[in-house]
Amino acid sequence: MAEKDPQTQTKTDAEVIEEADRLYEACKPLELYEFLLQHKDSNNEEVLWRLCRAIRDVAQMNSTLAARKKELTYEALEHAKRCLEINEQNYASHKWFAICISEVGDFEGTKKKISNAYVIRDHFQKAIDLNPMDATSRHLMGLWCFTFAEMPWYQRKIAAVIFGSPPTSTYEEALEHFKKGEEISPGFYSKNLLMLGRTYLKVNDKEQARVYLNKLLEYDCKKDEDKRALGEAKQHLKGL
């Protein structure tokens, strides 16, 4: 059997990526997932991280049942592992591995989630180092910082047992990452606007919190998670 021409293979990957991006921009998560599933054995990390993203988008849909969401989350992690195996110099490989490890932790309990904290942080940092202009990586690092800044005392005790010196962060650190994401790509993600609002509330800056929460009122909500972010923003605004 003749070997595939590398140029043909590259062109095929490029076409897959182009179609995947078209479906993503059109907000057709189920169609995108089914399309990329046909290419799950690809050896191109650009195809595979897009599959991870598509899987997550389906998992985040309100219509996705809890058991199916769990299946999808573990499925995404396997593809994310392959992304890293194929190319660990691609920022997206690190970003999606960290996202998937974090979301799997939601199904494995607090202790397991905390035990992966440094791994998650380090992969987000690697993604930022490889591509400082990726707004989503900045948002995710901000979310990591926010999570550990507000960690309740009982979880801190678990973290202390696991690490001795548990992960720590501050709301100010979280703010810097969220703000950087917004600076790179204004309005790129509904949840970044929400987290800016929430974090400003944590540091008692109600004026700035109101600015970002109000921006969500004008946000073009295309996904269920956008609508959830909008709903949460409205609740916070009622208290201001």
From TrEMBL:
Keyword Plastid on entry: no
Classification via Pfam families: RMD1-3
Listed Gene3D superfamilies: Tetratricopeptide repeat domain
Cellular component aspect of the GO annotation: mitochondrion; mitotic spindle pole; spindle microtubule
Keywords (A to Z) from UniProt: Cytoplasm, Cytoskeleton, Repeat, TPR repeat
Keyword field contains Cytoplasm: yes
Name this polypeptide is given: Regulator of microtubule dynamics protein 1
Organism: Acanthaster planci (Crown-of-thorns starfish)
